[in-house]
Amino acid sequence: MIIALAFIPIDDLSDAFDVLRREITDDLQPILDWLEDSYIGRPMAGNRRRPPLFHPQMWNVYNRTLDAQGIVITNAKNYINFIKCRRKFLIIIH
């Protein structure tokens, strides 16, 4: 569940983290504290958060995932073509 935060829209990240904090077991609270300090930011007055050590724009992949929908398929096709060409080359050498 913690890893899923990387795929949440940045505007919804604070709410998603609050839901996660309510649902997670007590033995994982220290990890959530570290995560909040480093990646989310601690709550402040006025429904705001302190700036985290690593701003969500650095690690959040929600928009990048949406923008790169076809990249995986293209890369897979390129890899398959590479393997086919390499196989033909190895047959010629042997």
Task: Describe the structure in your own words.
With 94 residues, this protein is mainly alpha-helical. The chain folds into two domains: 1-60, no CATH class; 68-94. It contains five helices and two strands. It has helices at 13-23, 29-40, 56-59, 62-67, 71-93; strands at residues 43-44, 48-49. A two-stranded antiparallel sheet has the order 1-2. Helix 1 (13-23) runs antiparallel to helix 2. The longest helix is centred in the last third of the chain and has 23 residues, at 71-93. It is elongated and about 60 Å long. The mean pLDDT is 82.
- Described by the principal axes of the CA atoms, the overall outline is elongated
Order of helices and strands: HHEEHHH
State the strand order across the main sheet: 1-2
Largest sheet: 2 strands, antiparallel
- Please give the number of β-strands: 2
Strand content: under 5%
Q: What is the average of the pLDDT values?
A: 82
Given the structure, what is the number of helices? 5
The Rg value, from CA coordinates, equals: 21 Å
Q: Uncertain segments of ≥5 residues (pLDDT<50)?
A: none
Count of structural domains: 2
**Which structural class do the helices and strands define?**
mainly alpha
